[in-house]
Structures are given as structure tokens and as C-alpha cells.
Amino acid sequence: MDRLKPVTLSPLRVAVLLGGESAERKISLQSGRAVAEAISCQGHTVVSIDPAETDLATADWSGIDVAFLALHGTFGEDGGVQEILERLRVPFTGSDSVASRLAFSKVAAKKCFAEHGVPTPDAFLFSQTDSPGRIETWATDLGLPVVVKPDAQGSSIGVTIVREASQLADAVEQCLAVSETGLIEKAIEGSEWTLGVIDDVPLPLIQIRTDRSFFDFTAKYEDDGTGYHFDAEIDDATRSRIETAGLAACRALGTTGIARADVMLDADGHPWVLEVNTIPGMTDHSLVPKAAERIGLSLGELCDIVISRTLAQDKQRKLRDAS
Known about the structure:
Blueprint: E1 13-17, H1 25-41, E2 45-49, E3 66-69, H2 80-88, H3 97-104, H4 106-115, E4 123-127, H5 132-142, E5 146-150, E6 160-162, H6 168-176, E7 181-186, E8 190-198, E9 201-202, E10 206-209, H7 217-221, E11 227-229, H8 236-253, E12 258-266, E13 271-277, H9 287-294, H10 299-322
Parallel strand pairs: 1-2, 1-3
Antiparallel strand pairs: 4-7, 5-6, 5-7, 8-9, 8-10, 8-12, 10-11, 12-13
Helix pairs in contact: 1-10, 4-8
């Protein structure tokens, strides 16, 4: 944690991108507003930009030092906004378009994890063209319980844990209502953990506890009863295995800036990476700000660290391009 210390930045003009048109627009607006307020309190000038209202490709970026991305879901996390900003040569926080696109597709991310030896639950990809019988066969092969989830969505939208075969058809229908393709994934029974990462530096590990069936949308953003525990009773070796798996997942995808790896710990103490979020939430319920606060960093200080690293990396890229 020694590498995550507050930095001093000269006043900057920061564009905070928030909102958008994805299913996560509401949460993105909350994240963006929290970030904008925190950055403003650090002495920077903030320009809030909603891609649902502004064409980024033709917007006036003159005078903008850096874009801080708080766009969740499609266009924000799938490489879309990153491609535009890369083309415009506007420095932006978070992962580049390649890593963003890879992480946003759970199937693509799982393939990447497998290639790099990152433990992740077995899964099958399905779409509307697959028959109910074929989907049932895949669920049987995995063995109940299974998790049905969209291939490309966030905030647990469209996710269902299926414990009985009679629940499968409804779960698939809910999934395909928000995504063209989905996954049937072997459910890992155990405890749920999340690891925030800034570049390659881990934040304090958090165990998530909820009275709901899993850490769903309501548990994430609305339920004040959801528990976040930094001092969970696990031994150092187990804690290290979880952190190692989370960091390995981020490295495999090539994430930069803020990312968050979600990990399940099974009954035998083995970690299983579920996914990596390249633009995790920044609301008062969000996990990365909670982890930063644990080591004494305010949201504004966290944002300044990320902005500082973004500008340093952009400077290095420009030097490489010029050589």
C-alpha cells in the first residue's frame, strides 16, 4: 500500500464522463456526480459530459487536460468511449479500448483467464438460437446450482442463481432480455470477495456479506444491510491466494487505472475469479472508494492518484510515439 500515497497536482481542467444510455445510466450518474464533486474539492475545474446528450467525436476538447471516465455498462466499459478518446488523443482514466472490450465480455475474459492460468468457474455460452433442451443439457453437465448471466452487462443486471431445474427457463429469459448472449456458469458456493486495483497495486481486500441470495443490484446499491468486511477471519495464506488471483486476472486482461476483481472463495479455500470491472462504481455504496478510505485516502485523493498516473502514462506514450 506504500505506493498509493496522496499526490499534489496543479489545478487541471477535468472532463468527467457520466450517464450515457446503458442500463446502468442511473448508477453512472451517481458515480460521475460523486467523482465530479471530489475532483472539484481537490481544486480542479470540472466539466461534466453526458454522452447521451453530447457527441464526443465532435465535442470541443481544447483545454481539457484529462477525461475521468465514470461511464458504466455498454459504451463506457466495452471499449466504445475509449476508442473515440484514443482517436482524439484525449488522455483518459482507466483501461484502453482493447482491455476494456476484453474485460466487458465475460466469455472473452474467461478465455483470457484460462490462457493465463487464472482460476475461473466453468461456463457455457448461449444465445437465442440455442434450444431450451440444449441449455438444459449444459446446466446438467455443470451441475446445479448454476449462475445465468449476460455476457456483456454490469451491476448484476440480468443475473440469476438457479438452484432448481424449474428456474432455468425464466433465468435464461431474464438474461436474454438485456443481452444477446449469456453464460451458464458453475456456481461457486462459499464467500464473496472483491479486490480493488490501481494499475498493479492492490487495495485492501473486502469480504461482501448480504442476506440476499447473492450480491445483486439491490445489495450493491440500495440495501444498507449489505456488509463490507476488511478484517474477515481468514488466514494469511488464503488472503494471499485471493489477492494473487485478483491481480493475475487484471494482469491477464491488461487493465490500467482503477479496476476491481470479483472473487469467490470455495469451501476448500480455493479462489475463483468471476470477472474484472474496468470502471467500477464510485458511489457511497461502492467498493473501491471504501477500500481507498481504509488506507486513509479520500475519494478526491484517490481520483488525484488516478489522474496523476494517467497523465504520466500519456506522457510516456507521447515520448514513445515521438522517438
